[in-house]
Amino acid sequence: MLTTTKEATAKLKTSKPRLSFWQIWNMSFGFLGIQFGFALQGGFMSRIFQTLGADKEAIPMLWIAAPLTGLLVQPIIGYLSDHTWHPRWGRRRPYFFIGAVLSSIALFFVPHSSALWMAVGFLWILDASINISMEPFRALVADKLPESQRSYGFITQTLIIGIGTWVASNLPWMVSQLGVSNETTASGGIPMSVQVAFAIGAFVFLTSVLYTIFTTTEYPPEDLEEFERQKQQKKRFVADILDNIKTIPPTMQKLGLIQFFSWFAFFTMWSMANPALTEHVFQTPMPVKSAYDMASPAAAKAFKVASTAFQKSSNQVGSYMGIYGLSSMVFALLLTFYTAHRRINRKLVHMGSLIAGGIGFISMYFVPSPQWLILSFTLVGFAWGSILSMPYAMLSSSVDPKKMGVIMGIFNMFIVIPQIVAALGGVNIAYKLLGNQTIHAMIVAGISLVIAGLCNLLITNKNAITYQPNEVVTSTK
């Protein structure tokens, strides 16, 4: 007897085939572009804000666009992608494309902002657009891979993210080495090196996402007729999201606590590393224009010299920050080879990596010269590599696969809420408890990562810790 399409689809979904490395690579390659966007945003938005006249104390608040858009966009996109199916374009890929187009446009125009309010506005658009693409990429791994390959899949994503972080973080330095000007424009605008770097990032974002769209297929819903029927009957968009929030599994709640301290730390780095390191390590803070008598040629020249020194140091800070992408790539590469054939204890890997990253942040206060930042950011990269893989692997093994998109979107609320707390004064209040120097923000980031690492001790769900293909797991803690 011939198997019906419905039965064949159900069989495929309940027993997903193992994918090759290159199939997993293709479905994750779009993350290269997404990370170009995030790395350029994370490494250089504070620099853009300072160049346009922002006070360093105001920088975290100017960053609030990023977490707020994530809070709103990711659960919505997750829900919509769960309830989308197109015979040719699938479930997640339409959102990849929409987000990639909008992100590329925003990336190109961000460094052309002529006023601070314009840069802040473009950050809102950029972060919302990146989130449209990013959330479905997380869900795609859970959609396509069997349980035994989940860790492998998320770690492969982390490998690609590491490559993107390192290259994108070095782009302004690279193009300045090719002779592109690194000085602020005559009107005080963003240096040409930054403008060119963001244009390259826009191109890479769009092309890498298109590569994934055209090289990856998606599985249809288990029961396509039932899927369409439920989609027509259930128009409870907001109510469904709220219902899922109310019924968050215990493991997800505990992972949320880990995520809170992890992302508080990284938001602190993205928003404050440039002013902290240019001041404390490079001794070249952004000059305050009002402190110079610009009518005096000598004062105007002194301001330009100080401003150029700040821009050069900012390039170097971006390059050193790229080290954490490089080390996260090596971290992910080693785990990719290991998890291809063996299981790992996700909880212990995550705990150790976060504590190492915390030590890396704290060490920035003590470095005797800029070169030592290589070691600091290498340790931070271990934490970053783990943050981008282990929590998602643990979560995907403990939730309903039919709700993977909306669950991943809700889970990302645990990413954006700590960033909102940090932006609304959490960073400034916390670091000023240690002193008025901006470098104390890096110490706060380190302490936060150590706390996040220790919170892993709360995870007890065996399936989340290490997938057990031959064991029945009943614990829900």
Automatic annotation (TrEMBL):
GO terms for cellular component: membrane. One of its GO terms (molecular function) is transmembrane transporter activity. SUPFAM superfamilies: MFS general substrate transporter. The keyword Membrane applies. Pfam families: MFS_1. It is a multi-pass membrane protein. It comes from the Bacteria. The chain crosses the membrane at residues 21-40, 60-81, 93-110, 116-134, 154-175, 195-214, 255-273, 321-341, 348-366, 372-394, 406-427, 439-459. Keywords: Membrane, Transmembrane, Transmembrane helix, Transport. The keyword NADP does not apply. This is Transport protein. The lineage of its organism: Bacteria, Pseudomonadati, Bacteroidota, Cytophagia, Cytophagales.
